[in-house]
Design goal:
The complex is a heterodimer. Chain A is α/β, with parallel strands linked by helices. Chain A is built from ten helices and six strands; from the N terminus they run E-H-E-H-E-H-E-H-E-H-E-H-H-H-H-H. Helix content of chain A is 52%, strand content 14%. Chain A starts with a strand and ends with a helix. Classes of the chains: A alpha/beta, B alpha+beta.
């Protein structure tokens, strides 16, 4: 897979490049700010972009702004945003229009090479990858709503769904059987009043309800 | 113990300076003393009510008053120099309207100018008269004392007995002598009176002084608070650009080592476990430094405001938190920073002391106040005076003129409320 990397820290860029190369991906361009990132994406049309949030010139949310633009202008390019801190507000910006081909992770996660590569590949394949910290941040904002009816275990399952994981992966993380996960998910759909029409569609709706402010 | 002579020398020495100081005022007061004499005329004239000169007199009073009002700023400036030179006392300048520039309305309203006029017209001349009076009395005492022995021969006539004039003059000498004896004290008293009057009448009024002081203090406090915030931002940036990146790079490299060595499979298990430990530890270190930096000053606070920044604090709390942020309207950076700090510290206290299962944070705008309420269902018994966390919190809230309240009955629940004024 062809990847463009944007980070103003040479040190971090080098680390990410190394991780990607170990996994057999090709880094076609490295940039240090949002504007050159857009130019590089336009020129190389990569499969995926890995971008930092705080970059020159203002060191605020350049990475988020660039990511939103890339998602608008180059919908076939997946975007994985990395940051020293994750903020639900940035996640909401990223996911505003469409929750596919997008990821938002703490930079710490790069150090877990396999799961980072797995997340990047999942995003490139059209999935989502949300950092558990972002999910936790979204959780604290729930007013009394149907989500309160969920048991703690069901909330765990829903959080993992929101991170973009498939049933098998959820079962792995929670150390339960896949059928147990399926049962939890059915309970979630029931408690969130999601009618059983299209399983995939319901899944997205559940996640959206979970993420909605 | 100083001897009487030394005492006298000290007293007269000090009095000498005071006298010099008082005499230096005489030229300034002389003009005003004339004015004072003019002022004494109306009393006489009002007695002779029908006098045609009355109108001329009223005119002259108005002219004199106007003259002093015009001259007051200049007289005051000279007086200030006099006090600086002879007393080393700085009487602070007060901006007063200038009548000669046509600032009539301001002049009528200027409390400071009228106070100055009061000094130049009444207080100064009165001190001047007292100084002149004292001088004459003392001089006369000397003259009489010199003449008396000669008179004594005449006044004490063996044929007619002691003349009553003798007793009169004797009494006068006694009186003048006493006055002369107490002259140093009287001079000091007059000098002190002059200084007190000048301080009260020529300088800024107590209200203005206090108002200025409050302004200065609140300015410097705001500057100190801002400087502290700027310092937190700087530390946050430094850690972000420095330690955090190095740790991340280290973690990535250890991660690569862990993965490749594990895949090769020929690494001794104890060596492998060391690498795994190192990798886990550096990840923990990253998480710790991230928590620390977020507690300092999260970048998102500047970028997206209080509401956005609070998600991170609430999510990080070890006790589950429900966060509700209403419409807060625009807030100043310092209020946002303090509000963030309040929530952050309050939740840290909940985790440390309350043994709560649930906490709630509510932030809302109540007219011109930002209301922050942090409640928990823990054991209660929190004491605002006890924990250092709460003291620091109260100080931080006070730094923006906010109020912190804590109710925490034994057995709970604990409710911490902070009200921060946001101005309008």
């Amino acid at each position: 897979m062809r990847v463009v990397i944007a980070d103003d820290s040479v040190l971090i860029r080098a680390g990410v490049v190394r991780v990607l190369e170990i996994a057999g991906h090709e880094v076609v361009a490295e940039t240090g700010d949002g504007i050159t990132l857009l130019a590089a994406v336009e020129r190389h049309r990569p499969d995926a972009v890995v971008a930092d949030v705080r970059m020159p010139p203002t060191f605020k949310d350049e990475g988020i702004v660039a990511a939103v633009q890339i998602r608008e202008r180059f919908p076939s390019t997946a975007v994985l945003v990395l940051s020293q801190f994750v903020e639900e507000r940035y996640a909401t910006d990223l996911l505003a229009r469409d929750t596919t081909r997008v990821g938002y992770l703490l930079k710490d996660r790069v150090a877990d090479i396999d799961s980072f590569i797995e997340a990047l590949e999942r995003v490139a394949a059209g999935g989502t990858a949300l950092d558990p910290e972002v999910v936790a941040q979204l959780l604290v904002r729930r007013p009394t709503d149907p989500l309160d009816r969920l048991t703690p275990r069901e909330r765990d399952v829903l959080a993992l769904m929101a991170e973009g994981r498939a049933n098998a992966a959820i079962a792995d993380v929670l150390a339960v059987s896949e059928s147990a996960v399926g049962k939890h998910i059915n309970n979630i759909f029931m408690k969130l009043d999601l009618q059983p029409d299209d399983l995939g569609h319901r899944r997205v709706l559940a996640v959206l309800r979970y993420l909605a402010a | 113990m100083p001897t009487t002579r030394e005492n006298l020398r000290i007293r007269w020495g000090q009095a000498g300076w005071d006298a010099l100081f008082l005499v230096s005022g005489l030229p300034l007061w002389a003009g005003s003393m004339v004015v004072l004499l003019v002022w004494s005329q109306p009393v006489l004239l009002i007695v002779k009510a029908a006098d045609p000169g009355a109108i001329r007199f009223v005119m002259s009073v108005v002219v004199v008053l106007a003259g002093v009002l015009v001259a007051a700023p200049f007289l005051t400036s000279w007086e200030r120099k006099r006090f600086r030179t002879f007393r080393s006392v700085e009487i602070h300048r007060v901006e007063t309207p200038r009548l000669y520039r046509g600032e009539f309305r301001q002049t009528l309203r200027s409390e400071a100018l009228w106070r100055q006029t009061l000094y130049h017209l009444i207080a100064g001349p009165l001190v001047g008269l007292a100084v002149v009076g004292l001088t004459f009395m003392d001089l006369l005492a000397v003259v009489v004392a010199v003449k008396l022995p000669a008179h004594a021969l005449v006044l004490i006539d063996p044929r007619h007995g002691v003349s009553s004039k003798f007793w009169g003059q004797g009494a006068y000498i006694l009186l003048a002598g006493t006055a002369t004896y107490f002259a140093p004290r009287l001079i000091r008293l007059l000098a002190a009176a002059d200084l007190a009057a000048a301080r009260r009448l020529l300088g800024p009024s107590e209200t203005i002084v206090l108002a200025n002081r409050v302004q200065t203090l609140s300015d410097s406090r705001a500057a100190a608070v801002e400087a502290a915030d700027a310092e937190r931002r700087r530390i946050e940036r430094d850690l972000h650009d420095g330690a955090q990146q190095r740790l991340m790079s280290l973690a990535v490299h250890l991660g690569i080592a862990r993965k490749t060595l594990k895949e090769r499979g020929d690494v001794p298990p104890d060596a492998m476990s060391v690498i795994i430990d190192a990798h886990e530890q550096v990840k923990d270190a990253m998480a710790e430094i991230r928590d620390l930096v977020r507690g300092l000053h999260p970048a998102v606070l500047d970028d997206r405001g209080l509401d956005a920044a609070l998600s991170g604090v609430a999510a990080r709390s070890a006790v589950p938190v429900r966060l509700t942020v209403g419409a807060t309207g625009p807030l100043s950076a310092s209020v946002e920073t303090v509000a963030y700090f309040v929530v952050s510290e309050a939740l840290a206290n909940v985790v440390k002391h309350s043994r709560a299962k649930q906490a709630a944070v509510d932030v809302s705008r109540r007219q011109d106040h930002l209301l922050i309420r942090v409640t928990d269902d823990g054991v209660g018994g929190a004491d605002a005076q006890g924990g250092t966390g709460l003291t620091g919190l109260a100080q931080r809230v006070a730094s923006v003129d906010g109020r912190l309240r804590l109710t925490s009955p034994s057995g709970g629940p604990t409710v911490l409320t902070a009200e921060l004024p946001c101005g309008v």
